[in-house]
Structure formats: structure tokens, C-alpha cells
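Workshop exercise sheet. Pairs work together: one partner reads the sequence aloud, the other fills in the structure field after running the prediction. Swap roles for the next sheet.
Pair: D.N. / O.F.
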Amino acid sequence: TATCDSIVTLNLTVSPLKTHSMSHTICQGDSFTFGGNMYTLPGIYKDTIHTATCDSIVTLTLQVLPLKYYTLNETICSGQDYIFAGIHHTQPGIYTYTFPTSHCDSIVTLHLTVNPAPSVHIVSTSYETDNGIFIQLNAISSTSPLSYLWASSSVLSSYTIPNPTTTVQVPTWVYVTVTDANGCSSTTGQQVPTPVVSTLYAP
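Structure field:
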């Protein structure tokens, strides 16, 4: 000053910035909002929060967990169904369902194949021998190979071949179940009539 000098002492205090760290985990396809921004990719993100004193710097570590994918390959026969996600499926196709879990969802894809059931019908013919009249049964099908299982109240010469023989005294139902190489089955039945006994009359 014009007279005596003035000595001013400044005590300067530098306060450190406030830093905070946080971690968050989301699932693939989800998002997380941080600092006014929406994030979907994993990484480290920072945001500065302004305060009346010193700013706060917040660091976010974002982890993104992948979804779980599974594939099922299933085969059924025509006339059957396959239960997937509580739904009965009878037609071939590709079906996808998301199963919620406690973490990230599981996405399951079903590839369903439907094999046709074999077609079959019975042909019966009668023939006479010295031992009586026999019925020749034939299971006719365009599918091969097949396994056979016959059923009847009359006795058959075999129950596991395509062409057994039998004798009947009254009209009788016979049934055959055929199964193909894929495990698909069909059953059909036919009533076999009582054969007519030929009688010769001598004049």
C-alpha cells in the first residue's frame, strides 16, 4: 500500500473427488440404464455426478450373461403326440420355446419328425384238405420289413408270421398288429366267415 504492506495468507485445501464402484449383471437381450444411457454390451462405464462440493465419479462394471440354447431332436409315429412346453404336438416341424429361469432364460428348439404308420389289411381264403377246411390268412402291406403279431379266439398256426392258417367253426374275428423298422405300428381286424363245406351227393 502507500503506507505499510498487507500480508495475506491463503490456506488452500484440495478435497479429493469422491469415487464409487458398482457391478451389475444382465442377460443377453436385456439392457441397463446408467448415467442416463442405456447399455446392452459388457464393459466398464463411468459417469460423473456433479454435487455442491466435489463431483462424484461412479464406475460401472457391466457383465452380460449369454442365453442358454438347447436343441431337441425327437421322432414320433403318426397318431402319436409329443408334449413340449405343455403343448401336444402331432405335426412335424421346428418349435421354439423360452423357459424362464432364475438367471438367464433357456431357449429350447424342438425338431420334431413324424414317421407314417404302416398300412395293412387282411385277406383270407379257404381251402380244403383231407384233414378238413383251413383258412389261409395274409397280412398285406406295402411296407417292409415288418414284424407281425396276430390275435384271435381261434388257434393259429403261428402268431408272428404274415400268413398263418386257422380253422373256424363260427364267424371269428382275427387281428394283426404290424410294426415297422421305426417302431411305428398299425392294427387291423377282419371277421373270418365260417367256410362252406362242399358235399357230394351220389345219384
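Discussion prompt: The first strand starts at residue 18 and ends at 27. What would you look at next?
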